[in-house]
């Protein structure tokens, strides 16, 4: 049985610029990823996630989506923020894909699609904890709020998953 729930949208009044999926990582931290590298945003019941032992704590497990097995990882934990509640009834998930490599990332909440111009992205160098920086394309100020612009390729290729050495 597949459960798909409509997600709340936080719509920007902008009609130009590139589209990004916006989500909450923790109470103070919002982030976006390019829609070009986002397949979909869904809510996955926790019961559909199979926990796999002896993996890094950021790996929540595997789940089946449209006849494909996908890894589900805790994006806030990867970024050094407070981990997602392991006892939640469901997970807000962004399905990312870079090339042929998919990855599902759990976040606090999906907030919808926003638009902004890539020229607005500021460099993350020197602005954030160095452990955070490898996963950032930069940051923007949107509606008086600092929003992280994440790099899906860096997240998918993270060495902590054991794929790349």
From TrEMBL:
Q: Which SMART domains match?
A: CheW
What cellular component terms from Gene Ontology apply here? cytosol
Q: Sorted alphabetically, which SUPFAM superfamilies does this protein's record hold? A: CheW-like
Source organism, top-level taxon? Bacteria
- Please state every residue range assigned to the domain named CheW-like: 17-161
Q: Which InterPro entries match?
A: CheW, CheW-like_dom_sf, CheW-lke_dom
Which GO terms are recorded in the biological process aspect for this UniProt protein? chemotaxis; signal transduction
Q: What is this protein called?
A: Chemotaxis signal transduction protein
Whose protein is this, by species?
A: Chamaesiphon minutus (strain ATCC 27169 / PCC 6605)
